[in-house]
Design brief:
Layout: H1 13-38, H2 42-50, H3 56-63, E1 71-73, E2 92-99, E3 102-109, H4 120-136, E4 140-146, H5 158-173, E5 178-187, H6 192-195, E6 199-203, E7 208-210, H7 214-221, H8 227-231, H9 233-240, E8 245-247, H10 250-262, H11 300-304, E9 314-316, E10 324-331, E11 334-341, E12 345-346, H12 348-364, E13 368-374, E14 376-377, H13 381-385, H14 388-401, E15 406-415, H15 416-421, E16 431-434, E17 439-441, H16 445-462, H17 469-486, H18 489-494, H19 507-518
Helix pairs in contact: 4-5, 12-14, 16-17
Length: 535
């Protein structure tokens, strides 16, 4: 039998302690998510409502098919940023939802935050959304109401911001539909969002699309003009031709957007899989598996058993490279190859096992799921002499040149080059999520502080100077605190190093939504095409 058993003792003190620690972190996460939903705050939300307008998430809800999920992406963007003006969420909502049966990438400006103006984090979030749409061939629907660039931070937006418009043209050139629904201002550079979209809908007396508003036109040319004649919805529908559809109000605009999507004749590259069998074990038990102290190992099979269909898992090389679990399963009906860290450290055997497994997945056109809990590749004389560098490089080579879609979930530690070998952000996973229990950095805080201490002590000895142990202890404590805070998932998510921090209990659902989106595009593995494997 290949159905996984379980050794998880839900009555043990360790389980209770792990569960309590993770629930506390989930409470912290919920508080930060609430900040994103609150947008610009009560004052600006009320002002927006008084104008008879819907909020960004309300627009999305009306756009999507009733009772279908919306996978919101990067909700913590800009968390912990240096400027307090950059609110959590970065004044933009992005995610994947179903419109008239078609999975689409949806973006919506939040006009309650500085009029929906784009700051540097807004730009990064929008570019990431376009990247997801392009890789997975998802039609893009942009719900637009933005005053353009946040002018005080223009130096960080103007030059890289041109990529947004390049992305829209690349999507269209690749045959991926783009739809813009304009609810309010779409000014200056923002005018090119509707200008470069395949389909444009504008709301009567609300949409304002122009390269330069009346004040700028007056300054530049001396011409007197008003919003409506310069860039109103009716003008663009009757005179300029920029608007393809003219909506009488916001609900009508969203209705028309749904009709546009319905007429796209859009088809997924792969048929829907058969109905899956749920796991044998309760997803709620995922809360008690990862220890609060990530130095304590845990069995990733306990996680796999609560994610995959029927808890059915065919393990590959189960007796070799024991600190990396690999094998085949189905998740919401889709085939997946899974690589999951067991004891944290990756040795030569694990690296070679991973490289072979990744090649096999590419031969079979099977997407790969990486479940992270690694402190990196093993160091030390014995392991260096045994070839850990070339074997680690072999694994990284395989990950880098694999062409099947990759999904990554950071469950626990994800340190050093192990983060790379397990398909971290720099290795272009289609989606990457983190649990609140995760941490990621070049190495653990204690190790990093210890290395700096050893180097400083050696430097003092080489110069014949006495070493200040008291100052050393203070330095180590400061460095540990800094690295600890910078390795936490909310900090990393704020910088868009993942696509969201998720409740472990939602992991199967989130991965299922991602796999469905992924299969909109062809899933094809590399047949050869890998770099030189140093044997």
């Amino acid at each position: 039998m290949t159905v996984l058993g379980t050794g998880l003792d839900t009555a043990s003190p360790e389980y209770a302690e792990n569960r309590a620690a993770l629930l506390a972190k989930l409470d912290e996460l919920a508080a930060e998510h609430a900040k994103a939903v609150a947008g610009g705050g009560e004052k600006y939300v009320e002002r927006h409502r008084r104008r008879g307008k819907l909020l960004a998430r309300e627009r999305i809800e009306l756009l999507l098919d009733p009772d279908t999920p919306f996978l919101e992406l990067s909700p913590l963007a800009a968390w912990g940023s240096a400027s307090p003006e950059y609110t959590v969420g970065a004044s933009l909502v992005t995610g994947i939802g179903v419109i008239e049966g078609v999975e689409c990438l949806v973006t919506a400006n939040d006009p309650t935050v500085r009029g929906g103006a784009s700051n540097p984090w807004t730009l990064k979030k929008a570019l990431r959304a376009n990247e997801i749409a392009y890789a997975n061939r998802l039609p893009v629907v942009s719900l637009v109401e933005s005053g353009g660039a946040d002018l005080p931070s223009q130096k960080e937006i103007f030059i890289p911001g041109g990529a947004l418009f390049k992305d829209l043209t690349r999507l269209s050139a690749a045959g991926i539909p783009t739809v813009a629904v304009v609810f309010g201002n779409s000014t200056a550079g923002g005018a090119y969002v509707p200008g470069m979209s395949d389909h444009v809908i504008m709301v009567k007396e609300r949409a304002k699309v122009f390269l330069g508003g009346p004040p700028l036109v007056k300054m530049a040319t001396g011409e007197e003009s008003d919003d409506e004649s310069l860039g109103g919805a009716e003008m663009h529908a009757r005179t300029s031709g920029l608007a393809d559809y003219f909506a009488v109000d916001e609900p009508d605009a969203l209705r028309q957007a749904r009709r546009v999507v319905a007429r796209l004749n859009w088809r997924k590259a792969h048929p829907e899989p058969a109905l899956p069998e749920p796991p044998k074990y309760d997803a709620d038990e995922l809360l008690g598996i990862v220890p609060g102290d990530l130095k304590t190992p845990f069995d990733p099979r306990e996680v796999i058993a609560r994610l995959v269909d029927g808890s059915d898992f065919d393990e590959f090389k189960p007796l070799y490279g024991l600190s990396l679990t690999t094998g085949w399963a189905r998740l919401h009906g889709y085939p997946v190859g899974i690589l999951a860290n067991a004891q944290g450290v990756l040795f030569s055997a694990e690296s070679q096992k991973a490289a072979q497994f990744i090649q096999l997945a590419n031969q079979r056109d099977v997407p790969l799921l990486f479940l992270h809990n690694t402190t990196g590749y093993m160091v030390g004389k014995e392991y260096e002499q045994g070839g850990i560098i070339k074997h680690g490089a072999m694994m990284i080579n395989a990950v880098s040149n694999s062409t099947v879609p990759h999904l990554s979930v950071l469950m626990g530690a994800s340190y050093g080059a192990g983060h790379y070998g397990m398909c971290g952000r720099a290795y272009d996973p289609r989606f990457l999520f983190a649990w609140p229990s995760a941490k990621s950095a070049v190495m653990g805080p204690q190790q990093l502080a210890g290395v700096l201490s050893i180097v400083a002590r050696a430097s003092a000895a080489a110069k014949g100077q006495p070493y200040d142990d008291e100052a050393d202890a203070g330095l180590r404590a400061m460095v540990e605190q800094q690295i600890e805070s910078e390795s936490l998932p909310m900090f990393l998510s704020g910088r868009l190093y993942d696509d969201g921090v998720i409740d472990p209990r939602d992991t199967r659902t989130v991965l299922g939504l991602c796999l469905s989106a992924i299969h909109t595009a062809p899933v094809e593995g590399a047949r050869g095409g890998f770099g030189v494997f140093r044997m």
